[in-house]
Each structure stands twice: as C-alpha cells, then as structure tokens.
Automatic annotation (TrEMBL):
Keywords annotated in UniProt: Arabinose catabolism, Carbohydrate metabolism, Isomerase, Manganese, Metal-binding
Annotated SUPFAM superfamilies: FucI/AraA C-terminal domain-like, FucI/AraA N-terminal and middle domains
MF-aspect GO terms: L-arabinose isomerase activity
Lineage of the organism: Bacteria, Pseudomonadati, Pseudomonadota, Gammaproteobacteria, Pasteurellales
Protein name according to UniProt: L-arabinose isomerase
Organism (species): Exercitatus varius
Known function: Catalyzes the conversion of L-arabinose to L-ribulose.
Length: 495
C-alpha cells in the first residue's frame, strides 16, 4: 500500500469579494488553522489547502487542476461565508474527482456577548452551504456531506472513512486483475462484461495461461523457498506431517514455491488482484490455497473460479481497511445451522479465506480437497472473529452493475468442528435469517462476497455512488415488500 503515501485531498474554501480584503484574510487564516489541525490528526490521506476561491475563474481553475493532478483523489469544499453558487457551475460541472461538502464553522459556540453583524457576515456556513448544496444537487453530482465542528471526534472519523473510500476509488481506476484460467464452467454469476467494467470502474481484467504462472513458479530458487518455509514455521502452528521430517513436508515446500512464483508474476505485471480456477491447473502440483490466503493478507484481491468482479472488490475493501485491526476476506455462503430462531450461516471456501479475520493463530495443515484432481493442498485453518460486519458483492445485470451489501453479526463458532479443514466464520443475518436470505436472493446476490469486520455499509454506498452503480442495502430495517418496490423502481431509474 505504498501508493497511499503520495495521495492528497484538496481543501477548497469558498467565499466572495463582497466582504472586503480583511474578511478574506480572516477566512484564509481560519482555513489554514483547520487544515493544519486536521493534518496533525494523521488523516488517512493528507489534506492540501488550496488558494481561496472567490470568483468563477478561480473555482474553475482549481477544479480543472484537481482533475489533472494524479495524486489528488478528492476535493473538500467548505463555504466559510456565502459563496454565490452560480460561480461554482463551471467548476463543479467539470470536476471528476470525489467531492465532500464540509458543513462546519470555525467556532464551536456562538460568542453570546460579542456577536455582531461582522461576526454574522464572516461565519455563514449554515447559510452559504445551503446555497452551495443546492447547486451540487441541481447538477446531480454525487457527494458526501460531513456535518459538525471540525475538532469533534465524529467529524474526524467521518473524514477518515471518506478518505479510505477515495483511496479505494483511486486504486480501482489503476487496478490490473490477472485471470489464470477462465470461469468455472457453466457458472453464471461470476461471468460479466469486462469491457463495461473497465469503462465503469477503471480496472482492467486480462487472462493469462496457467503455463505462464507455472514458468514463474519453476523459476523460484531453493533458498527463497527455504526462507519462506521458516516464515511459515514462525507464523503458524504446523501439524506434525508438515514439520521438518514429516511425511507431507514436500507439500509445504511446494506451497512455498507456488506462493513465491505467484507473487513474482503479479508484481512483475503490476497486478494487485487475481483469479484462478480448480478446473485449470495444468502443470501445477496443487491448487494454491496457502499462497492465496497469504497474498490476500498482504492486500491482494482474489476471486475463486474466475470471479474477477469479486477479486476487484476484495482489493477495494483491502485498500479501504488498510491499517484497521479486524480484517476482510473473499468469502462464500457455504452451509447453514437451522436451529429455530437462532439460524447461523457457516461461511468459508474450499481453501481461500484470508487469515486477517482469524480470531486465533491459524493452524497450517494439509487435507484432501476432493476436487481438481491434484495433490492435497496446504491451507490455514481458523475460526473468524466476532463483531459487526458486512458482506458485499457486485453483480452484472446485463445493462448495469449492482452492489449488494448486507449487514451481519459475526459470532463465535457454536461448537468445535475438529474435521472442518478450512478457514471459516459464522454470522447471523439482519434483520433475521428469513428476511436477510430472501433479500440477498431477490437482489441477485452472488454466492461469493467480500466479508469485512471493519468497513461498513455507508462507506460502500459512497464507493457505489461515485461509480454511479446501483446500491442495495440489507439491514435491520429491511422489509421485503419495500425492497421489491425498490428493485422495481431501480429498473426504471437505471435504464
């Protein structure tokens, strides 16, 4: 995630010449104070204060510059005073970076004994932001609105969440996804229009022969493999068969070689997300389970069975949640425990679940896969953490993309499962099992999703709004009749 260090958000403060030079000097000084304070809080992306915007020409200039500055990933607009919104038409019409309307003011409290007309003229956010907000709405531009005093903890959190989404948007627009093999045969939901995805999101998806990956794997030297195996031994609890002298030790060595070869291929090609499929493993000894798990933990996106849409979304959520403690992973609804009024979903995949969500130190084991016709693969086995979570997917409906996000309650495993050979997590659906399941299915949700314990639905909504894709939110307030109406209305809205 080194690219995050070069990103910046531009802080543009609106006013007008009507108030005179002294007032504008004060506006600029106040903006400097606010931007300096916010940067001192170590935001996810650094804030760059731009010159005061008081004329249509100045506004157009800064918006054009934001568009063409590669490192600028978004614009914060603050109306310190009243800034007539017709001045903003040309600039906002051309602005193609995410916009945040910062509804704040310098002073937290009204100075009751000193307040006069000079104070009223200078501190007009409550007034000026409504003028600005009308124009943004009139232009039908998506934006995030943050309300509150700039020193409040809630405002800092809202800005941080917005910046995390900006980083993911930027990354999607520069993302390259590598596909090793095609989709799992006859599967529908993992298919999609890769050209339309590149037009809409910016990322590219291209296929590569498994033989090219095998060449990269075979090029790995033994010293690199030995070093990585030692890393495995330090990080995980190895079962006896994988320890030095164990009967399956060679499989662990093969796994290390696969991981190094896969990472080398991705890094040389500039890929930050990838897919594979168990139906196309020609020349490989085993399906890359351990390798995929570890690469996801390093921030790479992944989708199984050729699912490139989920691979790109995993990468987006990885970027959004960088530095946060609870993790996210490629995931699949697998099976249920249907205890009356206490139904839970067992979510997993046949190998590829990211250990960033693990509650305890994972076990590194080798088990039969029963599919793919290759050697038994190594994998990390663990139970996921409990807590508030989301599961999200993007599906291609033929004439548009739809993002579906469900709010979940991840729970501790109800009982031990000594024979379950995969990383996994349990969750309960909102508002209940019946409604949550029906809502996902009615919305066309895929069986693959991105599970996150750090990123909430509103951050994902902001992501979807910027890319102008449909967003369906399943939560504690979801009612099926209303959802069915929303889906019908959206058919018209997105045509």
């Amino acid at each position: 995630m080194e690219f995050l260090k070069k990103l910046e958000v531009w802080f543009v403060v609106g006013s007008q010449d009507l108030y005179g030079d002294e007032a504008l000097k004060q506006v600029n000084a106040d903006a400097e104070q606010i931007s300096r304070y916010l940067n001192d809080q170590h935001p996810f992306i650094r804030i760059q204060l731009k010159p005061l915007a008081t004329t249509p020409e100045e506004i157009l200039s800064v918006c054009r510059a934001a568009n063409y500055e590669e490192n600028c990933v978004g614009v914060i607009a603050w109306m310190h005073t009243f800034s007539p919104a017709k001045m903003w038409i040309a600039g906002l019409s051309r602005l193609n970076k995410p916009l945040l309307q910062f509804h704040t003011q310098l002073n937290k409290y009204i100075p009751w004994n000193e307040i006069d007309m000079d104070y009223m003229n200078l501190h007009q956010t409550a007034h000026g932001d409504r003028e600005f907000g009308f124009m943004v709405s009139r232009l039908r531009k998506p934006r995030t609105i943050v309300v509150g005093h700039w020193q409040s903890e809630s405002v800092k959190q809202k800005l941080d969440r917005w910046m995390r989404v900006l980083a993911a948007i930027y990354d999607q627009q520069h993302l390259k996804v590598a596909r090793f093999g095609d989709n799992m045969r006859e599967v529908a939901v993992t298919e999609g229009d890769k050209v339309e995805a590149q037009i809409k999101f910016g990322y590219s998806v291209n296929g590569y022969g498994v033989y090219q990956l095998v060449d990269s794997i075979n090029a790995v030297n033994d010293e690199e493999v030995a070093t990585l195996v030692k890393e495995y031994e330090a990080a995980y609890r190895l079962t006896d068969s994988l320890k030095e002298g164990g009967e399956k030790r060679q499989s662990l060595i093969d796994s290390a070689r696969i991981e190094l070869g896969l990472k080398s291929f991705l890094d040389k090609g500039g890929f930050k997300a990838f897919t594979d499929t168990f139906q196309n493993l020609y020349g490989m000894k085993q399906l890359p389970g351990l390798a995929v798990q570890r690469l996801m933990a390093q921030g790479y996106g992944f989708g199984a069975e050729g699912d490139w849409k989920t691979a790109a979304l995993v990468r987006a959520v990885k970027v959004m949640s960088y530095g946060l403690p609870n993790g996210c992973s490629f995931m699949e609804d697998y099976t249920y425990n249907l205890e009356d009024n206490n139904e839970v979903v067992l979510a997993a995949h046949m190998l590829e679940v990211c250990p960033s969500i693990a509650k305890d130190q994972p076990v590194l084991d080798i088990k039969p896969l029963g599919i793919g016709g290759k050697d038994d693969p190594t994998r990390l086995i663990f139970s996921g953490k409990a807590g508030k979570a989301t599961a999200s997917t993007i599906v291609d409906l033929g004439h548009r993309f739809r993002m579906i996000t469900a709010e979940l309650n991840a729970v501790d495993k109800p009982q031990d499962m000594p024979n379950l050979p995969v990383g996994h997590v349990f969750w309960k659906l909102e508002p209940d099992f019946d409604t949550g399941t029906q809502a996902w299915i009615l919305s066309g949700g895929a069986h693959h999703n991105v599970f996150s314990l750090d990123i909430d639905a509103e951050m994902l909504r902001t992501f979807a709004e910027y890319f102008d894709i449909e967003f369906i939110h399943i939560n504690a307030k979801t009612e099926l009749p209303q959802l069915k109406n929303e889906l019908r209305w959206n058919e018209a809205a997105y045509k």
